[in-house]
Amino acid sequence: MIVEFCTACALAAFVTLVYLCFFYKINWIRDLTDTDPKSSSLMAKYRTNVNQTLKNLPPVYPNGWFGLLESSSLENGQIEHVAALGQNFAVFRTESGVVRVVDAFCPHLGANMAEGGKVIGEDLECHFHSWRFCGETGKCTTIPYTKTVPSNIKAKVWESIEANGSIFVWHHAENVAPYWWPQKEEAIAKHSLLYQGRNEYYVNCHIQDIPENGADWAHLGAIHGPAMLPTDMFTKIMHHRWTNISWSTTSQNEATADDSEEQNKEKHIAYLTLHHDLILFDKFSILTLKVKGRQVGPGCVEINLESALGPMFIVQTVTPVQPLVHRVTHTMYASRFASFYSKIVFIGECIMFERDVRVWNHKKFMHNPALVKEDRTIKAFRKWYQQFYSENSPTYESCKASLDW
After folding, report:
1. Going residue by residue through the chain (405 aa), what tens digit of pLDDT does each one get?
2. Is residue 384 part of a domain?
3. Which residues form the Rieske domain (predicted)?
């Protein structure tokens, strides 16, 4: 009896371990109040302090590609309503599997086609009067109670693309067509790196504050140096060490190339490299990671991690859902062999990111910050980021006046 019981326990433990290692996927979600109970009052704080907090804010919706949904959340024939960037999008996947993004509101009488409409072949049908619109062109293809469909009736179509497990939409204040596109990671497309989990946060700050962290190397020791479990006991025996840190608008490969035209094509990309170690007893180094990141426009970061157990890849998306509230996601990919290890790394990333969120939720954007010479990468980042603003980029005040959120 005892032998059978021990065998059953061992088998159950083995099955559980196999499930956690190879089948369990992390889904770590935090809204504003989860990361900070005081955050529900933050928007009121911003609105009542317009002169001091909002007067010199940069535009709130930059130009670029922004993640609306994860690909896995949209099946063939499914529609989702996404409010972001001051717009309402109907995001749907046609019956042939192609993702389309159109204005959610029907040009007929304004019904929200994402809330009750349905996909018919390659078209989106409005539930109010059964008008149909082509997902590719936006043209009205069917009006059931008329023989002639006017050729000028169209739903606005937004440029979109699926890449690395996310659905991106192109937003530009001057209605400029995309001049760069998110690139698909070959290892994800070929399934040599597999999905391991995701997180999702809602953050209350200016959008520029979030990617600026990548250029702010000095915050790593202060915010991310203490152990993941910051109790007195753990703080004494372990800490995180960040070394070999660099941020640049040119990659190491490009830095030696005399190819200004190629660099100009990729001026929307910035590069980050660093090494991470977890130090035990100020002596032993474990969890060593070599990190190479690419900030691709204002709304996406691609992070390659080299570990002793193989490569890992994280995709970060930052999407404004209101002028000062952003949906931030991270999606982890790793080889099957590194599956369990990648989950440990990813949980650590979740905990570390929440430390940043608590800072962002209570800071204000400093238009003219007091910087020292060691902060030069912050200054370089701000100069680089300016390319994503244009003459008609929405400001907080213009959004407030039009209620575009």
Report:
1. 675 655 655 555 555 555 655 668 999 999 877 766 665 555 555 444 444 467 789 999 999 999 999 999 999 999 999 999 999 999 999 999 999 999 999 999 999 999 999 999 999 999 999 999 999 999 999 999 999 999 999 999 999 999 999 999 999 999 999 999 999 999 999 999 999 999 999 999 999 999 999 999 999 989 988 876 655 556 668 888 889 999 999 876 554 555 566 667 899 999 999 999 888 888 888 889 999 999 999 999 999 999 999 999 999 999 999 999 999 999 999 999 999 999 999 999 999 999 999 999 999 999 999 999 999 999 999 999 999 999 999 999 888 776 655
2. yes
3. 65-169
3-state secondary structure 118-132: EEECCEEECCCCCCE
Per the domain annotation, does 13 fall within a domain? no
Q: How far is CA 198 from CA 186, 222, 256, 288, 300, in A?
A: 20, 26, 36, 22, 15
Domain that holds residue 200: 25-63+185-405
| Identity of the amino acid at 112 | N
